[in-house]
Structure prediction request, 208 residues.
Amino acid sequence: MDRQVKAERAWLIPYRISQKIGGFSMRTLSELSRQDVNRLMKEPEPLHRFIEMMADHFYSAVQRIKNVYAGDAALIWKGKPSSAEVVYRFLEFEGIGPKIGSMAANCLAREFKIPFSDYYSIDISADVHVRRVFSRLRLCSADVTVEQVIYKARALYPEFPGMMDLPCWEIGRSWCRPHRPACGDCYMKDLCPTAKQNENGKQDAAPG
Ligand code: SF4
Prediction:
């Protein structure tokens, strides 16, 4: 769900659906038809800007968990697999690319402390906030690409490149805004070349 809508809205969608169907058990979910999911996503108000595509992904993900993982999503990461194996298993879901596959593995490792045998293959999810922060910290150039951020994060912390994802995103959302960054409140201000440059009255050219 986390694409082209605010993250807060995207991450609430499963909860909104659980409210509508009275729970979130796999049995309840797996009995929903494709049309049921579409209706739940659409009515009474649309939960996402891409209803049809998100409903399809939601339906097929539930069916995959039911059919491949015996209805138990935790089997995706059970038994301390490698990070590459977990990302690969997410990539097998319809609509999941490397960015979301990495983000999902990152959430499991970082937030839920799920043990993996390594964290090498959990990449940074280089959205516009992360790219802007990498650029303003002068880790990358002003016109940095997604791929450049991914490889720079791998170079900086190969053991777990995705570890830099959340702090950079939070800095980008909270202080390092496209215009007039609030450097005085940012905890990187003492290390940041752009903050020093702004103190001297110069402008930067980081990604919006
Ligand atoms: S100190 Fe300023 S320019 Fe540097 S990362 Fe923080 S908000 Fe962005």
About this structure: Residues 133, 136-137, 171, 175-176, 181, 183, 186, 188-189, 192, 194-195 surround iron/sulfur cluster (CB under 6 Å). The chain has a mean pLDDT of 92. The chain is about 50% helix and 0% strand.
